Amino acid sequence: MSQPAPACPGVVLLGLLLRALARAPEGLRRGLAAALAVPGRWLLRRRWRVAAANLARCFPGEPPDATAARLAAHRRAFWQAFTDQPRAWFAPAGRLAAEARIEGLEHLHAAAAAGQGVLLLTGHLLPTEPGLRAVVEALGGPVGLVIRRHHRHPCIERLVDGARRARLGPTFGKFETRALLRHLRDGGRVAYLADQDHREAPAFVPFFGIPAATFPSIPDLLRAGRARLLFLAVRREAGGYAIRIAPTDLEPLQDDPVAFAAGYMALLEAAVREAPAQYFWMHQRFKTRPPQTAPSTEAPP
Hints:
There is one protein chain. By secondary structure, the protein is an alpha/beta fold. It has one domain (9-278). It is 49% helix and 16% strand. β3 (144-147), α8 (154-167) and β4 form a beta-alpha-beta unit. α3 crosses α4 (64-90).
């Protein structure tokens, strides 16, 4: 017997606030981002230490003041993305598409004409979901999303997941592989952010020149889902979003998971270098180390 859904009176108020923020003018959102950055510097201090360590490792040879400037830019980009995020879920229809420059929609149209599903490979670029909403609106069809489900917060999960399903497309948890493959075989489109630290049988491949534990099974998903592979890059710019959808040229590497993962990280690194502040540097990307390697020092105590 299924458990009854929990009562969520506080989340009703949260939903109203997020809807209001999604409709707020950009100047108000920027002001809120600046205000949140003040307590956020203390509240997220451990995450900022992780980000600082990541930036120092990925941009070696820079003086400390340059690393500090990169961290400050990342803080600004993070809080702007934080206040922009509700727009992916609750902005009025058509608004994000009107603000976006999108290259490569023809690749999604071609896959649809061929009746083929699409695995849209991307990474934790901060404006990914608002950009994805713009793609959905411009395309006139859904794009699903592989997500991490937060079962410890069922009320917030229900609010956010419902909004994603309504404005983007179906969502799939990290371990809901069968449903994901059925969706791809049926011609569906799914965005997959597979760039975080992967602990179980990872492929260690370079990311900014550092061996990074990377999910090795994208080729298996492509074969089992009979899907086409494309890469999605989203960048926030003045007044909107720059979005690029492009072939990856990784298909010939599907029989070599390590080479495929290396190609994926190379594509992502190139996208990150276009706007370094807009990557999620707060994640411990280099936590899992190759055998016989010293432990990562990303998060000093």
